[in-house]
Amino acid sequence: MSSLKLSGFGLPVTGEPEVSHPQTDRLISGNPRRDTWSAVETDLAGASRFYSGVWRSEVGHWRIAMGPTEQEVFTVVEGRCRVHGDDGQVQEAGPGQAIHIPPGFTGSFEVLETLSKIYVICE
Questions:
Q1: Region of poorest pLDDT, from 44-58, 64-78, 85-99
Q2: How far is Cα 120 from Cα 100, in angstroms, rounded to an integer?
Q3: CB 46 within 8 Å of CB 122
Q4: What is the pLDDT of residues 41-51, one digit of tens each?
Q5: Are the CB atoms for 100 and 89 separated by under 8 Å?
Q6: Do residues 72 and 120 make contact, with C-beta atoms less than 8 angstroms apart?
Q7: ∠ at Cα 11 (9, 17), nearest 5°?
Q8: What ranges do the domains of the chain cover?
Q9: How far apart are CA 99 and CA 39, in angstroms?
């Protein structure tokens, strides 16, 4: 099921970006080129809550289970981690890299080095 696929992304980016410029009626100065590499685009499945913040953890490994409408995207600021899916898939991330954990995902979260991340959760 593609809706349960973990997505990893971060720097350096690969592939061709979507290129855009600000709308002319919104310009204040210049005409900057903006490059976007979209990594995750998914329905919110009736999400009613949005959470975002900074999270830190010491080394450890534990089970996780996302609810049917709960999903998270986080970017590692410091340290390293792995997210393991019960189906055998694994995504690892370090500083500047991000992981998307989809709704209904079950598996485990492993902190390899003391971790700080910036997270966004929709539920």
A1: 44-58
A2: 10
A3: no
A4: 677 767 678 88
A5: no
A6: yes
A7: 75
A8: 2-15+46-122
A9: 10
Output the CATH code of domain 2-15+46-122.
2.60.120.10
Residues 6-25: pLDDT tens digits? Answer: 888 877 878 888 899 888 98
> Which is nearest to 37 in space by CA: 16, 12, 60?
16
Beta pairing class for 106-122 and 71-85: antiparallel
CB 112 within 8 A of CB 79: yes
**CA–CA distance, 69 with 80 (Å, rounded to integer):** 26
CB 103 within 8 Å of CB 67: yes
